[in-house]
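#data-curation
PF: Archiving a pair of folding outputs for the training set. Convention for this channel: one message per protein, sequence first, structure tokens after, nothing in between. First:
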Amino acid sequence: MAGNSNNRLMMGWWNREQSLDADGKLYSATVPYLVYGPDDEDDVLAYAYTAVPKTMEDLDLDRITVTDRLGDRCWKISVEYPHKERNDTDQQQQQEPEFAFSISAGSKHVTHSIRTVGNYAPPGETAPDYGGAINVNEKGEAAGVDIVSSTFSFTEKHFYDNSHITNTFKRNVANLVGKVNSSTFRGWEAGELLFVGADGSRKGNTSKDRWEVTFRYRVSMNRTGVTVGNISITDTVKGWDYLWVRYENTVSQKTLTKKIASAHLEQVYIYASFSVLN
């Protein structure tokens, strides 16, 4: 059995593999051993785990493999110490997130102007007042116009130990997609960030290899002092809230027009804490 006091371990120098980095430090190593005494592979591995060194210089033990049976109770094993990049936990923990952002021109459809500069008509006539409505048709409906607006998005790439990427973590991240920050996050005020998703990947085949997870956000900045027609919005218009207006018919210079009767500010996204995205 694995606990048998007659079990013995002997380092084998045949086929030993090791390499140095550019600084002359041990980069990786694979060391063969002979194990005498255990009855089967399970006992070999259990005993070897207690007997072989857990580190070699600054490399950590990663894998023990039974490679051959040489006799009734004689076994050959291989002990692997992968290169430092995959084992330097302190260095990995200090790895800072990576950030990227994109600011570009987008399109926004508006049906009312910020202000009417002027209304003009032929001599002797007076132009109807549409109350800021743009491209009003014969039915008095404002067709509006597309204008250029700013779009702002950014990403963050974080690095996590394999043990951090649990099903609970994935569920928590998935639950935040389509939600808006409920408190200040990354310097953005509550209501300005919309979380739109994440991408995760992990390269390598050891338990020390880390996950790269990229979080994606869109930005819409809060506004104050907003007016719609002659209506003042007294509350802060949060970036991802929805402001809409109700119209009613009116007549100006014998022309049917629409005027803004009321304005309504709606919360259409759930607000949530983004703390899990740190």
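PF: Second:
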Amino acid sequence: MKHIHRRQVLVGAVGIAAAGIAIRTSAASPNGKVSVAVVGVHGRGHSLSRHLAQRSDTQITALCDVDQSVRERAAQTVHGINGSKPRLVGDFRQLLHDDTIDALVIATPHQWHIPMALPALAAGKDLYLEKPASHVFREGRLLVDAAKKYNRIVQHGGQTRSSKVAERAGEILKSGLLGEIKMTKAWNIQRIEPLQPKPDGPAPQGVDYDMWLGPAPKRRFNANRFHRTWRPYRDYGNGDLGDDGAHDLDMARWALGVKTHPVGITAHGSTVDLKGEREYPDNMMIAYRYADEKVLIYEDRIWTPYGMHGFDSGNAFYGTEGYMIFSRRQHLQVYLGKKEHKGPRMGPEGLPPPTALHLADFIESVKNRKQPITPAEDAHLTCGLIHLGEAAFRVARVLHFDPESETVRDDAEANRLLTKDYRAPWGVTT
């Protein structure tokens, strides 16, 4: 397995010098709008396209997807909202040469995030990069370094950070009402039915399946490993920990106030109920300890019909004077003192959708060149929790992590899990 040095840059098949791509310095669309191309427009990407199409300061110049039917459906949605007709492409590399495009929104399966993001940054594009930004730990460092090198805006798709309920939670945390936050917890507890095996077969008509695989290993098409259901497979996704768990880990790290990686990680998991085709456990417990002795705990169970504290996806922020139950479902409730008297509360009533607010923050950052609410550094710290938790689970021992060198001390096996091989031509170059 090839190890990626933290100062190397992954650029896929497109060498920037060879491609002759000029680096842009700011958003400069002729009509004054921010010109955006959306890459991966099935599911989440379709939703992001819908939000962007509703903005008067944004123009969707292109829609990119390896599935012809998917990109055509997204184009119909955009046209129905604002009457525009975005250019449709099947290969994201065509977008890198287009000087009329200011920014890319990348909402592909996880294996493609960084192999697309890095050449896009080198080509001078700003990025809205869906969570998790990285598929393996080392990719997060490459993203941070590339964003700095090319002076680009990167917004990670952790839209809860832009929500009004997170804004209110931040005010409460800053006020000191809860005392000092010593521990936070993130959970993802819900019923997710397992996939049942399906035979391999031909890819659907109009699908460039080799491009869909990209840097992932070559294999025959299988409907389970395609639209919407690819997440349980390590070649493409990061399981439940890297799906809904990414949002909750992000908020737990944010509330804990830590600005570095943890130094100790333990993880346990198994498959106790959901038998089917999956490469991740159906339950996990992970504990992260930081150098200042603060602790972050993650828990998931995807075999239950119920959640925790009334929410499938949520957090608890534990302070010395009280605690807060928080959910990205736009809810918070504070409990104070020994008797847990109820304090401030906020519910979803009348609140705007976080995704619209998060995209607005990104577009404003593209225009004014100020860092967005979830920049590349935040993406790496949050996604690092996903990858370190997964590595600790797979090696079944405590990881002693060095945040400075970004390596696990005295553990070659765990360090190998922080990187991966890439199928040609989507490889690693310096």
